[in-house]
Amino acid sequence: MRHRIVGTLVLALLLKGMAGLAAEEGQFDLSPRSLALLEEAVRKTGDPKSGREIYSDTRDAQCANCHRLQGTGAHVGPDLGHVAEKLSIREIAEALIAPSRKLTEGYETYTVVRTDGKILSGLKISDTADALHLRDQLGKDHFISRSKISRLDKSPVSLMPSRLVSRLSRQDLVNLVSFLKSPGEQKLLDGRLLRAWIAGPFGRVIKKPEPLEKDPDPSKVAASTTGKLFQWKLINTRASGLFQPGSPFAIPKSSFYLLGWIKSDRKRKAALRIDHSSGIRILLNSSTVYTSREAGMDKRLEVDLQDGWNTILCRVNNPAGSSTCGFRLESSAGLRLCADRQD
Known about the structure:
Layout: H1 2-25, H2 32-45, H3 48-56, H4 63-66, E1 68-69, E2 72-73, H5 83-86, H6 89-97, E3 109-114, E4 119-127, E5 131-135, E6 141-145, E7 149-155, H7 163-166, H8 170-180, H9 183-186, E8 195-202, E9 222-223, E10 229-230, E11 233-236, E12 254-264, E13 268-276, E14 280-284, E15 287-292, E16 296-305, E17 308-318, E18 325-329, E19 335-338
Antiparallel strand pairs: 1-2, 3-4, 3-7, 4-5, 5-6, 8-11, 8-12, 9-10, 12-17, 12-19, 13-16, 13-18, 14-15, 14-17
């Protein structure tokens, strides 16, 4: 009997040890031990460069789909410009693992039930006697008439889904936190366009203008000179910071359009850096400002901006169906390159 009891205790201890090992090998959680291990890992093995690639990959971690950092990204969640200075490693980790635990004031989620039964959730941008302005997690704005609102509730749940972190490996989360504590690595994001609108495929002759060039608008159907209609779609960059469209845009011997905006605080000159693996034509406010038949890396283009929003439209040649391109503004206060026109 004594041997059985000892054997049972030994087995229990082994199982407990294995469970602890499994917990350490799995994803981090909010337990004090797990957070302590994460802090230690960030200091010893954290790779801010890899973390920047994770942050920039808007298809996976999706950080830049909602947050702005160094003037790059969207304006759905809080700006992360001072997170490295204001938050500790543990506080950043807690915000990523459990985003609903502590909501930033002004970024609470509201849920609207309309009179037609449709339910919308997002940030409350403005609220007047006539209408409610709501911005959802994709950055889309909804203006809802007060007469069409059946119910409006403030939610205790963050607009940031907690499952986003679960997509990352243990080391990926360590690297992401390391990046968010690294101002130097964050500076490399300065001014880069990480998301844009895309339409296509169009014909391969990029110097031939299409009707959409006069007034590119994602809310409207884009028509070609042949009468073919295209819907604008949002596309994200790869971790490299470059756009590489997939199907149905990746058609050999064709071209596609990328659309974004530059917000300027005044009438001024600015410098745009361009990477492209094939021919490209760039239009600023519907006027061609750059054309190249060859590939170019880190090309510098000086442009004249008007006060307010400036439309930047790029037609990219796609001879083999695998063309890439990327854009960023040289660092300058008062400028923003983005895929939305939200202040």
